[in-house]
Design brief:
heterodimer; A: about 675 residues; mainly alpha; 4 domains; two-stranded antiparallel sheet; 8 strands; B: about 425 residues; Alkaline Phosphatase, subunit A; 8-stranded mixed sheet; two-stranded antiparallel ribbon; 11 helices; 14 strands; about 35% helix; disordered N terminus
């Protein structure tokens, strides 16, 4: 037992000292003559937006006109308009991320008003479910291709996104929050995007360009792009907007860890690290304040996360995620072995020569002016200091000059680089922002964007309806509301078309097929999120019964939901030209559908009055029960053949009615049609 | 007796599957069953009936030491130096080669192992270094890379085998990337627990599930008629794989309770030890790739006690695995790799920890027909620098590919990208480890 004491004592010590961790960098900055970090950027205030239905109508008319002209030019005949039930299910999945209730279907079908579709669109756009659905869509966009460990930070960003969409803030505010925020946050926050990618500003730059501009500049990271016109120099200037990104940690009220992204110049970082090396060399390893602070932060976070740990949630790795390498992205500094006398002298010389440099001035200017002196010094430095110099030089050479992708230069006036980038991205004049967002929305609603692949606007891919693309982009960029695009596109005639019958599908070359020019609606598998929320709606009216945990700890709930969703994610094979897609579940996803709570216990839910009534052996007639289950799941009545086949299964006297109905319900929930947005 | 490798060879058609087919036939209900499923069961039956071992012929077991293990307290000790950490060493079965004192069982098996002491990572953060080590390529969002387990499963797995070709125990969920769901990792969080949703639900037996499936097929046929053909077919294929897994007798691989107490003790009773035991049972039954994670190696604080405890899990589990595979004549066909994302610093920080050190670290290899009893690469007296050329992750992947007979240079074209080799062609296999070179 005595062995435990040192551990306990160090834990106490860590808790007591943890609040000091934040102070150390600034202290060091003052004592070491280090340039001050940038002030956090002031974000632009923008009021919430109201949906402009008249603008949606006008834009929809424009869309109809342009697309009809495209059909004529391509010699395409659009498919007939789809029926009301299919349209409502489609709209609900596209705008709310889940199927409509049976009651909603019935009300909609019974409504004779000609304006019922537009009214439903606007109601769905105003719903909280729209905000939730968009938060999932944008999370998937923002994190696609990130590190495998991103799952944890992903779960942090999504609730923040949902809240922004719910409050109807302009999309530019969301972009700014994600790219430029420096606010302290605990879990739910926009900063988790930058935190996720902080280990590589190159990846961060690539993710921002891909998500908000629809540009694939990533390949130009290593070489001038082979298929595109991006150069490595352009890439480096763009990544230069993230040059100053550092993660920061403190302990807030109640001993809770808080995180933020802060902007420190490479000079600040270089001198900070150099000062630590010198201090360590001078006083021995016990004075290694940096490692101390890092260790404390990691330990504090680990303890906290241990409390929130659960199946599928690795608190320790999460803490690592957030804390990252605690400094320059992409680099990991290690404390050096104790240096020799000559190494120590070299270290001090380096410190002395570099500390004269002012903010943003080359910290090595004095030494670089005398190459022989620098070479000799480099020879004499300990390994880690030598690597620090080389990394500083490389970073300064590649990323100091920030510049926009339209080759506008950016003048370094000491303000936040990230804020400047966010302003440029979401400006109406940006040549890609509006087009990128419009292309995403079109692709989501129609399975195929104006430009494919959807995030490669300047690539060698396929393009249709370029004028319309430009018009939608301009309308969005001017107004700033995603709902304008959704409202207008969902009102269009093209959105209401039916899918092609199977015989017609193989007739044309892929790029000439009807779906590519919006003359037929594609079949699309639900996303994992749509499937999870639809299963929940079909089986459980109050929406929380069994699929989602009910505990109130926000992060755990989000993690748990995330692991459910991940379980359902399979492989989605998209036929890019037409947007038709096929879903292949993984084995665990298939097992979940076959044996999981959602389908296996369906029908045993006595808390749903409608289901309870259906399952009551006394009432109602079999045909009514079957029909009600079809409407509840597939949002349509049973066909004659289906009614006959299912009624036969209910008429077997050997099978109790309750069991037979459960089997019907299971079959409906497991049907490919249930998993498809038609 | 537990299902050993030999008894597995002679396993007859599992009763559950045979009886299920019979039931379907007797009920005249075979028409609803997709022909491919029925065919598949028959093929499976004949494959097992002729006594041949089904599944993969070669296997990979990756023991992932998450966080980056300290080389000083494991496989590259520097006793008596300022960086050494004050631990003692253990002579191995090979003259002049030492492990840390906390790996006594592995030291006795050094003749069957090789240690790469010159492993260098090009990434210093956990997320990126861990992805690099799993992909064999620098991670980039432009390509959804498969992890090494999925690559091996894709190349060596038997698609007709009832068990998934790649099983992962604990850790971060791997990805099959552009290789698709066929080789997606079958994820087991805790080997001591039942697999989620694998069993028939209470009140739902096989005949009832068949009846449900029959009803579902009514819906599928209607949907195919309305244009949903492709979607329905892909969905069906994966459901059949899931059902096959529910019905195969080989699923007993996951039932560790059938192993004697002594075996549990030998591997260790923790999640990792049990996961390694599961890995052995899966490999015996033809699974191509298994990854088992041992977490906690990120010892920024209190390196010595933490690493000692972790060695206490790694040492018995890996030793028992080597012994069991050898005893079952599977060691030459099964490559075991134990590694983390990077090594740790020569100096100890103020919290008694060691920090990240991508410059050099250790990778342990055993089995797979390699030449054992070797250390590849070396560090200087204090472990601060390599005195031999570094071994990159690409070199390691090339070595794994060469040992397992994976066609590493196979060109594939992931959707939307340029052709990519499964394994980076720039990597050079470590010839010293290959027997016939």
């Amino acid at each position: 037992m005595r062995r435990r004491f040192p551990v306990l004592r160090s834990a106490l010590l860590l808790t007591l000292l943890a609040p000091l961790a934040l102070l150390r960098p600034q202290e060091a900055a003052r004592t070491g003559g280090n340039p001050k970090p940038n002030a956090p950027p002031e974000l632009t205030p923008r009021p919430p937006l109201a949906l402009d239905a008249a603008a949606c109508d006008a834009l929809a008319a424009r869309i109809d006109e342009r697309i009809a002209a495209e059909w004529r030019a391509a010699g395409l005949t659009p498919t007939p308009a789809t029926d009301d039930a299919t349209w409502l299910r489609r709209l609900s999945l596209d705008l709310r991320g889940l199927i409509p209730t049976a009651a909603e279907v019935a009300t909609f079908l019974a409504d004779p008003a000609p304006a019922k579709r537009a009214r439903t669109i606007d109601a769905f756009l105003a719903s909280d479910e729209f905000a939730r659905h968009l938060s999932y869509l944008w999370c998937n966009i923002l994190f696609s291709g990130g590190p495998r460990e991103r799952l944890r930070t992903e779960a942090l960003l999504r609730p923040w996104l949902e809240e922004q969409f719910r409050q109807r803030v302009p999309f530019a505010t969301i972009v700014e929050g994600i790219v430029a925020s420096s606010e302290w946050s605990r879990f739910t926050s926009c900063t988790s995007f930058v935190l996720t990618y902080q280990d590589s500003i190159e990846e961060l730059a690539g993710a921002v360009a891909r998500s908000f501009l629809g540009l694939q500049i990533q390949c130009a990271q290593c070489h001038d792009h082979k298929f595109d016109n991006w150069t490595q120099a352009q890439f480096n200037r763009f990544a230069g907007f993230f040059l100053d990104v550092r993660s920061d940690h403190t302990v807030g009220p109640g001993g809770k860890s808080l995180f933020r992204i802060i902007d420190h110049s490479p000079e600040w970082d270089f001198q900070e690290r150099l000062n630590k090396m010198v201090a360590q060399a001078r006083r021995g390893s016990a004075a290694n304040a940096g490692a101390m602070a890092g260790g404390m932060a990691a330990a504090a976070m680990e303890r906290e996360m241990a409390a929130a740990r659960m199946d599928g949630d690795d608190g320790q790795v999460f803490a690592e995620d957030i804390l990252g390498s605690k400094g320059v992205p992409g680099e990991t500094m290690a404390p050096a072995p104790a240096p020799s006398t000559s190494q120590f002298a070299a270290l001090e010389e380096l410190q002395k020569a570099s500390r004269k440099a002012k903010k943003r001035d080359n910290a090595l200017a004095e030494l670089e002016a005398d190459p022989a002196r620098l070479a000799a010094l480099m020879e004499a430095l300990p390994t880690d200091a030598r690597e620090l110099v080389l990394r500083y030089q490389a970073r300064r050479a590649n990323f100091t000059q920030a510049g926009f992708l339209d080759d506008q230069e950016w003048n370094d006036d000491g303000s936040s680089r990230r804020k400047a980038l966010a302003d440029w991205i979401a400006a109406p004049a940006n040549p890609w922002y509006g087009r990128a967002v419009a292309n995403r929305v079109v692709s989501q609603l129609f399975g195929t964007g104006f430009v494919e692949p959807v995030d490669d606007l300047t690539g060698a891919g396929d393009r249709v309806l370029e004028e319309l693309h430009g018009e939608l982009a301009a309308a969005f960029a001017a107004q700033g509301d995603l709902r304008l695009l959704y409202g207008a596109l969902a009102r269009s005639r093209a959105y209401g078309l039916s899918s092609l019958p199977p015989a017609a599908r193989q007739d044309a070359l892929p790029a000439l097929r009807a779906e590519r020019r919006y003359a037929a609606h594609p079949l699309q598998p639900m996303t994992a999120e749509q499937l999870l929320f639809s299963l929940q709606r079909a089986t459980s009216p109050d929406g929380t019964a069994m699929l989602l945990p009910t505990d109130s700890v926000e992060f755990r709930t989000e993690q748990s939901r995330k692991s459910r969703i991940d379980q359902l994610k399979g492989n989605c094979i998209v036929d890019v030209p037409t947007g038709n897609a096929e879903y292949e579940p993984t084995i665990p996803a298939a097992l979940f559908l076959i044996n999981g709570d959602a389908t296996a216990r369906a029908g045993l839910l006595a808390d749903d009055p409608e289901l309870a009534a259906l399952f009551d052996p006394a009432t109602p007639p079999a045909a009514t029960a079957i029909d009600a289950l079809f409407r509840r799941t597939l949002s349509r009545p049973a066909s004659t053949e289906e009614q006959a086949a299912f009624a036969a299964s209910l008429s077997d006297p050997a099978v109790p009615r309750l069991r037979a109905l459960e089997d019907v319900f299971w079959a409906l929930l497991n049907a490919t049609e249930f998993h498809t947005c038609r | 007796m537990a299902c050993s490798h030999d008894s597995c060879r002679t396993t007859d058609l599992p009763l559950t599957r045979r009886s299920w087919l019979a039931r379907v036939a007797a009920a005249g209900g075979a028409t609803w069953l997709a022909p491919s499923l029925a065919d598949l069961f028959v093929q499976s039956a004949s494959a097992q009936g002729d006594g041949g071992r089904t599944g993969a012929n070669k296997h990979l077991i990756l023991l992932w030491l998450a966080g980056g293990p300290s080389q000083f307290e494991t496989f590259d000790p520097k006793p008596g130096t300022p960086t050494g950490g004050g631990i003692n060493i253990r002579p191995t079965a090979t003259a002049g080669w030492t492990f840390s004192q906390w790996l006594p069982n592995l030291a006795a098996r050094a003749e069957q192992m090789a240690v790469i002491r010159s492993f260098r990572s090009s990434e210093g953060s956990h997320a990126r270094a861990s992805d690099l080590a799993h992909f064999g390529y620098t991670p980039t969002p432009a390509i959804a890379f498969p992890t090494i387990g999925a690559i091996v499963a894709h190349q060596l797995g038997d698609g007709d085998h009832p068990l998934p070709p790649f099983v992962q125990v604990d850790g971060l969920v791997s990805s099959s990337g552009y290789l698709g769901v066929d080789v997606a990792p079958f994820f087991v969080r805790d080997p001591g627990k039942k697999i989620d949703n694998l069993n028939y639900r209470r009140g739902v037996d096989a005949p009832r599930l068949d009846r449900r499936e029959q009803l579902r097929q009514v819906l599928e046929q209607g949907f195919v008629g309305r244009g949903g053909g492709d979607a329905a077919r892909r969905h069906d294929t994966q459901r059949q794989r899931a059902r096959r897994l529910m019905d195969t007798e080989l699923i007993s691989a996951f039932d560790l309770a059938t192993e004697p107490d002594a075996v549990h003790d030998a591997y260790g009773r923790g999640r990792f030890g049990q996961g390694v035991l599961l890995a052995r049972r899966l490999v015996e039954r033809g699974v191509a790739a298994v990854e088992v994670t041992l977490r906690g190696w990120d010892t920024h604080v209190d390196n010595l006690p933490t690493t000692r405890n972790l060695c206490g899990e790694l040492d018995p589990a890996l030793s028992a695995l080597i012994d069991d595979l050898a005893q079952r004549d599977l060691l030459d066909d099964t490559l075991v790799v134990a590694m983390g994302e990077f090594g740790r610093t020569p100096t100890t920080n103020a919290s008694g920890g060691r920090d990240h050190w991508p410059q050099n670290g250790c990778v342990v290899l055993a089995g797979g027909g390699l030449r054992g009893g070797q250390a590849i690469g070396a560090t200087d007296a204090t472990g601060e620098a390599l005195v031999t050329p570094p071994t990159s992750i690409a070199d390691l992947f090339a070595t794994v590919a060469a040992l397992l007979g994976v066609q590493g240079d196979k060109d594939l074209t992931p959707p939307g990208t340029r052709p990519t080799s499964l394994v980076d062609p720039l990597g050079r296999p470590l010839r010293e480890l290959l027997r016939n070179s």
